[in-house]
Amino acid sequence: MTVRKKRFRDWQEARRFRAIDLRRQGWKQVKIAEALGVTEGAVSQWTRLYDEFGNKALKGREKSGAPSRLSPHQINLIPEFLSHGAESYGFRGEIWTYSRVAHVIKQEFEVHYHPHHVARLMKILKWTPHKPVIRAEQRNEEEIEQWRTEVWPDLKKSQKRE
Fold it and tell me: Is 20 exposed, middle or buried (0-12, 13-18, 19+ CB in 10 A)?
């Protein structure tokens, strides 16, 4: 009889159940720890918990903390709002900061977020607010490369001399 379930809550839960399977197959604690990339102590703890409480002890737990104040749909709308540009929301300059994004969230959804929590939302969206989404039209890649190879090395040398 195998302990494995078809669906695991997370990869850590799957790893704990895998440790129990390997133990049932006769593997030594040292080899299980080595195979799963954990300490022997972790394997020992998992097997003890399993022996005492069964499958329930190895299950993953719900994440703690307050639920998000924005729905997934609202979170997905944030990049669309930000694509209009910072100046369209009354800011000076087109640079986005977490504080500015928090202001936009407050304005659009009437939900207050601290800038540190906005950073987490942006990470979920894989969006970095301080980098422009679109490069400037005037950007000349050849001139930039020439500056990097010819001008920049000379500037670095002169700075070292000073």
Answer: buried
User: Are 75 and 118 spatial neighbours (Cβ–Cβ below 8 Å)?
Assistant: no
Give the domain ranges of the chain: 11-58, 72-124
Distance (Å, whole) CA 65 – CA 61: 12
| CA distance linking residue 74 with residue 89, whole number of Å | 18
- Angstrom distance (rounded) from CA 159 to CA 153: 10
For residues 37 and 55, give the distance between their C-alpha atoms in angstroms, rounded to a whole number. Answer: 21
Return the sign of the alpha-carbon dihedral for residues 50, 53, 59, 65.
negative
Q: Residues 13-66: pLDDT tens digits?
A: 999 999 999 999 999 999 999 999 999 999 999 999 999 999 999 988 777 778
Q: Give dist(CA 154, CA 156) in Å, integer.
A: 5
